[in-house]
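Fold tokens
===========
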Amino acid sequence: VKVDLPQFFGKDDVESYLDWEMKVEQLFACHKVSKERKVPLATLSFQGHAMYWWTALERERRLHNDPPIQYWNDLKSAMRRRHIPTYYGRELMNKLQRLQQRDMSIEQYRQQMKLYMMKACIREEEATTVARFMSGLNLEIRDQVELLPYRDLNDLVQLCVRVEQQILRKSSKRESSHSRSLKKDYMEEEKPFEKKIISEPSKELAKRKEKNKDKDKDLITPHTSTKTSDIKCFKCLGRGHIASQCPTKKVMILRGHDTYSSQEETTTSSSSESEVETKLQRSKVEPVYPYEGELLMLRRILHNQPSGTLSQRENIFHTRCNVLNNACSLIVDSGSWYNCCSTRLVKKLSLITMPHPQPYHLQWLNKDGDIVVDQQVKVKFSIGKFEDQALCDIVPIEACHILLGRPWQFVKKTIHNDLTNEINFTHKEKKFVLYPLSPQQVAEDPA
């Protein structure tokens, strides 16, 4: 009879070896293999490391003049020494002692216990096995099974299965009933909840009204008890009423020199409205662009070549103004301590000069050495709708015709936008914005 045994590769895995051993013994018993044929058939299934181990074992036994292995029990003991460590039996016993049902079913728990007992080759009385099985059951099953009669381990297992099924049915019924009750409660509580939401605000409003009435009564009673002739108004200085109930309702405006004037609220409201309108009118900003026209005269300046961009990053404020119907260049620079006017502009337009109250020397505007600044001039100029005049020191400057420095900026309270190079200020209750020349326009001015 041909017997096909499973192959064995000799891996260091205890479980795989024990499975192979049990399978081989089942096949031997099924086919009724004789004792002499068991060892040759078993060794024919060796592959890989198992085959090398078997050949080495036979060679070693021949060298030591030991008899060859002829029976299955001898081969099994030799293979157990090779593949099963000495501590494996202790581990199986510990696992068997600690085995608990927990999340396993009764069938799974029983099979696991039998497997441990078979692998550990444990043979014990049935009463001991029953006690071992009972100790690992869950409490809810064990408490019920202990009260029931049983003959052996099989009867005990069947009782445990029935109790387990009963517990599962009860738990499923509880879950279904609980879900139904939740749905009913939800459906029943929807309408009362809405009624509560509607009724509660009305109750709160009623309570608040009652409290307000009580407060009004408390406030009215002390006034009625006192005499009206003793009450004095602090607004009109009359008697018989308080300031909040004054019939005149006049407003007292205090002014300087211990004078005052009274106006009715209607006049104050109209005046306030007119003030708002005037503020709105004043809030309008008047844009002021450079004056267009050819410059009055040429000026010698040093400047960079135009970059072709509109950025004001490297430019000071340049613009053009109108002086006696002539286009003149104007610079606003906060780095200058004085307002300056070019000597050539004064001579060209024959402007009227005046002596400087505090003459001083300059050294940085010209290469000719010290320059005495002892003359001033009032220059009237306009840029668009903006008209102004500035008291300037007459200096032989060549960068521009008029240089407005800190004095002019201080008087006008100017605000300089560093990003756009614009200057904002208020002049005669109007807001103005001075826009600079572009870098291209500054470069195109005659030099």
